[in-house]
């Protein structure tokens, strides 16, 4: 299989996305005979369309962005765009999608020719048989020109059904990529933030979604001393798109489903009610209704259910989009306040909830992401397979024991490599290590092998001299903000 992507350079305007660009470039320059299908998806606002448009400009490809409308309107728009791209004086008179797809697949030549159809699920909404049309066209065009058809779609319920492993399109696809939000290090660079503490605060609000910078008029806080003022002039300012983005995002995804219930569920999770039972109890709705809404939010990519590190059969939910978590934990209780009074006064009342709830939760997830993605194998003594929250059930007359960052290795035995606590606003001391030692003792009493387990403290405010001394003796691993953003 010959691949040559050397002639397609990633434009400077495309920030990062090196892996995605490399995969796309390799796909559209693949020299194998016959057509090929690629699928590109991603949650809204992550830059999927921007990336596909950049690829189009770099390769001279045909690009068509679908919109809601009737089948006849979409066919006509596609025909006009295709005629304009090819320089034809006549617009094709396609009778149906079979004609259109055959024409697109036949537009290549001896060299690979990219063809991009973005928002493909919108076309399927108008023409439900379109996936079958594409499938049949590929079967007919097995040995025709080297057209490289890329279909793009947001991570919606329709897209998930179209692009999953069991769909007809997925069986045809030679490439499938998902454009994810930036990780916390990429996000800091994207916002031009060098201060790890400021980067963490910002990530606790806007996460790694690229579009949020545009919704904030392209500006980020100029320094840690500007953060409060930046919150007032952007997130809490009803005149900025970022202020309304959390509500708009959920309304777009939930569509005709029970939006009030979805909001209530996100509010419950944002406040720490993270198990299915706890969510159901908090929202006071029938379990079947809650289960359906939870599945919907997971399918939309807004909520993630992850196994507990100590009990894999127990599920814990977290909100995948930090802006939604921030909105439901901090802003929702005082939704009307920014419209009725000055944002400075509102932020004074919201800041305690932000620092006490939203930032600690975001910081703990950032620590888990660091352990999974950035820590070297030497840090934990082996490559990391999972990093998750762990909770031991409350014993009789005893407290519940939790660890925010539980790291396990791979393989069938999934060795316990580390058990850690994450604290954002308090200087961590020796009593935090004592708690971790107690957790390890409880785990050992239940049959867990802790011979390779390192206690770890993740601190946003630093560590006491006694804890530093314990690290010098090899008793604990300390991870501060600088190491999270710059170290392994």
Number of strands: 12
Largest sheet: 5 strands, parallel
Terminal residue distance: 36 Å
How are the strands of the biggest sheet laid out side by side? Answer: 2-3-4-1-5
Q: In one word, what is the shape? A: globular
CATH homologous superfamily (4th level) name of the largest domain: P-loop containing nucleotide triphosphate hydrolases
Helix/strand/pairing category: alpha/beta
Question: How large a portion of the residues is in β-strands, by DSSP E?
Answer: 15-25%
Write the layout of secondary structure elements.
Elements: H1 18-28, E1 36-42, H2 48-59, E2 62-65, H3 71-86, H4 97-105, E3 113-118, H5 120-126, H6 130-140, E4 147-154, H7 157-163, H8 168-172, E5 173-178, H9 184-190, H10 196-206, H11 211-215, H12 227-233, H13 241-254, H14 259-270, H15 276-283, H16 287-299, E6 303-307, E7 315-319, H17 322-331, H18 337-340, H19 343-373, H20 377-380, E8 386-392, E9 401-408, E10 416-423, H21 430-445, E11 454-459, H22 465-472, E12 477-480, H23 481-486
Helix pairs in contact: 4-6, 10-17, 10-19, 14-15, 14-17, 17-19
What does this structure look like?
This is ArsR family transcriptional regulator. It comes from Streptomyces marianii. InterPro entries: P-loop_NTPase (IPR027417). The chain has 488 residues and is of the alpha/beta class. The protein folds into 3 domains: 18-178, P-loop containing nucleotide triphosphate hydrolases (Rossmann fold, 3-Layer(aba) Sandwich); 235-335, Arc Repressor Mutant, subunit A; 366-486, Trna Endonuclease, Chain: A, domain 1 (3-Layer(aba) Sandwich), CATH 3.40.1350. Helix content is 48%, strand content 15%. It is built from 23 helices and 12 strands. The chain has helices spanning 18-28, 48-59, 71-86, 97-105, 120-126, 130-140, 157-163, 168-172, 184-190, 196-206, 211-215, 227-233, 241-254, 259-270, 276-283, 287-299, 322-331, 337-340, 343-373, 377-380, 430-445, 465-472, 481-486, and strands at residues 36-42, 62-65, 113-118, 147-154, 173-178, 303-307, 315-319, 386-392, 401-408, 416-423, 454-459, 477-480. The chain has a 5-stranded parallel beta sheet with strand order 2-3-4-1-5, with helices on both faces. A 5-stranded mixed beta sheet has the order 8-9-10-11-12, with helices on both faces. A hairpin with a 7-residue loop joins β6 (303-307) and β7 (315-319). α14 packs across α15 (276-283) and α17 runs antiparallel to α19. The longest helix is centred in the C-terminal third of the chain and has 31 residues, at 343-373. The protein is globular. The two termini are 36 Å apart.
């Amino acid at each position: 299989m010959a691949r040559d992507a050397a002639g397609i350079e990633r434009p400077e305007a495309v920030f990062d996305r090196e892996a995605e660009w490399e995969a796309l470039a390799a796909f559209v320059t693949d020299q194998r005979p016959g057509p090929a299908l690629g699928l590109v998806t991603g949650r809204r606002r992550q830059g999927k369309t921007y990336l596909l448009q950049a690829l189009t400009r770099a390769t001279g490809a045909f690009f068509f962005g679908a919109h809601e409308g009737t089948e006849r309107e979409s066919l006509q728009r596609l025909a006009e765009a295709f005629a304009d791209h090819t320089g034809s004086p006549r617009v094709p008179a396609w009778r149906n999608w079979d004609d259109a797809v055959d024409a697109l697949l036949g537009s290549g030549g001896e060299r690979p020719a990219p063809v991009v159809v973005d928002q493909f699920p919108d076309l399927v909404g108008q023409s439900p048989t379109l996936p079958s049309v594409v499938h049949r066209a590929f079967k007919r065009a097995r040995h025709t020109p080297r057209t490289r058809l890329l279909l793009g779609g947001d991570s919606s319920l329709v897209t998930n059904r179209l692009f999953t492993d069991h769909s007809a399109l997925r069986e045809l696809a030679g490439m499938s990529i998902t454009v994810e939000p930036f990780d916390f290090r990429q996000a800091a660079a994207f916002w031009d933030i060098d201060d790890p503490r400021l980067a963490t605060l910002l990530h606790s609000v806007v996460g790694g979604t690229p579009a949020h910078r545009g919704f904030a008029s392209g500006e980020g806080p100029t320094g840690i001393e500007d953060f409060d003022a930046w919150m007032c002039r952007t997130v809490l300012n009803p005149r900025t798109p970022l202020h309304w983005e959390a509500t708009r995002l959920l309304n777009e995804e939930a569509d005709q489903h029970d939006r009030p219930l979805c909001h209530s569920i996100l509010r419950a999770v944002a406040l720490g009610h993270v198990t299915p039972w706890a969510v159901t109890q908090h929202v006071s709705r029938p379990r079947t209704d809650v289960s359906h809404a939870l599945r919907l939010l997971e399918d939309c990519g807004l909520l993630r259910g992850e196994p507990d590190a100590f009990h894999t059969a127990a599920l814990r939910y977290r909100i995948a989009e930090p802006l939604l978590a921030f909105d439901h934990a901090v802003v929702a209780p005082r939704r009307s306040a920014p419209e009725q009074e000055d944002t400075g006064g509102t932020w004074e009342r919201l800041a305690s909830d932000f620092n006490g709830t939203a930032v600690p939760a975001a910081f703990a997830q950032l620590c888990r992401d660091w352990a999974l993605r950035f820590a070297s194998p030497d840090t934990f003594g082996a490559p990391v397979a999972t990093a998750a929250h762990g909770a031991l059930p409350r014993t009789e007359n005893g407290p519940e024991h939790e660890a925010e960052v539980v790291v396990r290795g791979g393989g069938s035995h999934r060795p316990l490599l580390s058990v850690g606590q994450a604290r954002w606003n308090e200087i961590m001391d020796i009593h935090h290590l004592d708690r971790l030692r107690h957790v390890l003792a409880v785990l050992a009493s239940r049959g867990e092998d802790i011979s390779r387990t390192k206690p770890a403290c993740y601190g946003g405010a630093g560590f006491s001299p006694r804890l530093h001394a314990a690290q010098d003796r090899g008793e604990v691993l300390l991870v501060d903000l600088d190491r999270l953003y710059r170290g392994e």
